[in-house]
Amino acid sequence: MIDQNTSTEIFDAIAKRRGERRNFMKVAGGATAAFGGATLLSACGADNNNPNATPTATTSPSPTSTASAATLDLDILNFALNLEYLEAQFYVYAVTGQGLATSQTTGPNSAAPGTVTGGAQANLSGDPLVLAYAREIAADETAHVTFLRAAIGSSAVAMPNINIGGGTNGAFTQAAIAAGIITQGQTFDPYASPENFLLGAFIFEDVGVSAYKGAAPLITNKTYLEAAAGILAAEAYHAGLVRTVLYSKGIGTPSAPAIPALIINAQKISDARDSLDGTVASNSVGAVDIDQGLTVTNAGVTDANLVPTDGNGIAYSRSVSQVLNIVYLNTAAKTAGASMGGFFPNGLNATLPAFKTSAANP
């Protein structure tokens, strides 16, 4: 268990990081928030396992042709905020056993936030390295929430209902079943061990990177382009760290036995994300896989694959709908107002349906 002193240190670190972001906001406060553009792009390149594959690209339709650019900017920022609520709650619960403060999750006019189902303090005390990483990421993700809420101002949406449970009805259990890690009737608790925690984090991190990457071509305000690039970089650091530790534990070290199931299960999660978002395409060379596991085999030699990229070494993008397919854990179209499922049981909080409605896989 994490004692009171440790919890205090965690929140001190979070407060410090918030202060750093506030300094930025003092400089950027006069600028107009601008993720200029209608929606996230989904750009695919050549498969890392097929370096000769021809890059392909797809785009999502515009949410609306009549909404003002300023309104769309806020919708895109709020979409990102929904995802940051999810990540922050998972990590903060994992390291402290409690979630974000209500003041960090309320909406306009103090609208009540949704509830968090299933969050718990993770059993990380036996692995100081993973515990230290979890504490750092928790501080970063909390700072992202604070930063985006400050950027959006009074239009910042309240946190929606979030499910981060590992019980029978938990979203992590649903995700593990979808990936084939467990079967119906079993459960997957991401808080039970350092290894389970890492696999739980692996579900989120690559998705966050591809979501922010998809927004990059649409940002027109240079101040916020720099800020978004900074968040993207932080998410990429997190994803690379999680992938590296999983790989290291998977192959083992002289002082620790190998846990090959970690590499196998990470691949299953990657395959499930590909299946959910429908991004696997075919060309003359073969399948183009925008989501990859921890290893790659070329000419019979298996190497680490710690950075999932296309043949040009560039990270992939996902559209809004593709991200929603993954977090809703559903390949079918989920319309606004319907029961969404997965990590957002009632969907995201958004004004435009396009930012909370997933589409059927292509």
UniProtKB/TrEMBL annotation:
InterPro entries, alphabetized: Ferritin-like_SF, Pigment-catalase-like
Pfam families referenced in this protein's UniProt entry, alphabetically: Ferritin_2
UniProt-recorded name of the protein: Ferritin-like domain-containing protein
Organism: Sphingomonas aliaeris
